[in-house]
Amino acid sequence: MGCFRNIFDAGRLAFAFVAVCVLAFFAGCSNTSSTDSAGILIETNTGNKGVARIYVAPELWDLSAGDTVSLAFADRDTVGDTVFVYESDYRKVVDSSAVLSGMFDMDSVPVGKYDSVTIYGLDGERSYVVDVDVEDGETYMVDVNGVKEISVVEMSAWTGLSDFVYMSISDFNIKTGDSLKLYGTENWGVFEDTLVVSHFEYYDWTNLVMDSVTVASGSALLAFIPYGHYDSLLVTSPNGETKKHKLSFYIEEGKSYYIDSDGARPIAIDITPVREGDAQFYFFIESFEMAEGDTLSMMRSERELNGDTLHETNYFATKVVSAEDVLKGVTKIEGVPGGFYNQLSIRRVSNERGLSNGFKEDFRQWNLSETPIFISSSYVGNLDSVDVALPEGFEDLTKTDEIFFDIPFPIFLPASLDNPCLLDEEDNLIKLEASERDYYADSVLYWGKAPAVKFSGTGKLKFRIIDKCVEDNNLQLQLGTYRNHFSDAEISDSAYARFKDKKDLLGRSRWVDSTDNWFYVPDFKPFSEDGYYMGLSIWFNIDSMQVSEYAQIISAKNDSTGFALQKRGATGAVNLRLDTRTGAYNALFGRANGVLDGTWHNYSFKIHGDSVTTFIDGTLLESRQFDSGEGFAAAFNPTIGYGGIRGGVDEVFFFDGTQSNNWMRLFYALQYAVIRE
Q1: What is the pTM of this model?
Q2: 446 and 510 assigned to the same domain
């Protein structure tokens, strides 16, 4: 093997690392022949059966990006009257990655003895005399120390990272939902006579999935990528289709770059943080599995490339979740700069909730404007509002200082909503369950329970609607100690024939037409364990002429001890009967006249120690003392419709009896406010 004559300064530094070695491959050969004027046959061979690979330090020939390197030889051999001429002119263009990496890779160099090299550059051409014998299948490294035959070990690993790297969206036709992977190589150096080369692919923990915000910005942030030579980019669409882009650039450690179709150019980065604004975000605690002490961070970026400087404006908003937030079910970040956000991160206080590293990252697209936006794990949308005004006669409840805790209420919401929730004025999250869903109607009846109600100056309850808040709306909420909406009630043929012209109350109602068509609530004791507390609310639609005397609308007894809401003899009145073992027996309370008139009415009462308070249609009937004695605690399995009831019942609620009089009135008023609509 011959050697290159070193015609460069002796003080040139040898490179420390070299580029990747690939397997040698074979080139074909072609032969031409001609006869000169003296009759000598000339055979010209312009190819060779064997090839080799040569790595050259760009410093040796002062190579610059865009230069064309021509490595040539011509060899002659005479056999008899034939002159055999062997020629080769191997050419390759120098790219910027070769200059930056310190190694120019000349692959597939034909076998032969080379005698010259010519550099074609922007400033003209220059030639050098060389003397090297390239042998088939060998790999050579050339530096200031001469020519060295080497072997190659290839592996998959990388080390060392760049600083921030950005990639052009338009140059590579990147769409929303696409994922990116970069493929490259890095030389780990020559150890004795062995070149160690690493082949690697780069993608971050999000697989570089592009959201619409990133696509709209015009550039994707790749953050920190391994240094080395990159040769291709793979873009994969959401449906699995792939497109490969050929690249040729070199990334150095600790530098920032902008990548486009022309390669990678070093850039300076000017970053401006913004942390103040007027918008607000709401986050569903359950959806993000948050706990007290977790930190939420939101960020979006706006970027503009000006020359070799990328100007980036980053908008931030953070919030530490409080115990009150967890209790409410939502946490709110205020003072958020307006714009289009695409990144949310949650820093966990611990990894005790099954999280591997104490962190959960969630990257999605969220539109943020001056209108508050609710965020759950599956949906973001503008918060529409709905108001509930109390009916006439209950305006005094809006002026009281009393706070009404844990009060159930019905509400109709548009059928277009999917599993909605509500936010009250104190940002408490109120989950809703659908009482009945009629997909042919334009609205759906929901029930919820407000944790605390205090009226504003408008005298209305104000809620903001959150769509797609929960996975489903069959939540079976604890609206009382017992409740029944009769949403799945089936009407008999005879009852339908009798009551087909009757309107249901809230959703579907239960209609009965037979003296034996009654039912009971199994395994339920309506009174407290000591027997001194209980509350009830029930709606009924009964014609006094259709039922027998003392027919029971609802009752709960054990050995004749308990209560019964019943028709009062032959009248159109309803009253409450209480029976105890050692106290009151056949004691009558709260007579409501004229309510068995074939229209809907609500009767409610509460027993609180030795007092009983009764209401009809939200109006106080009476409140008086009685001897509660013993026995209420044993009453069980409330019966509805026993004793010959014909008509309809709906919305049966049992409570613990600790509710105030105004609470009972408000519960009726909230129902009637929806019914009257």
Answers
A1: 0.70
A2: no
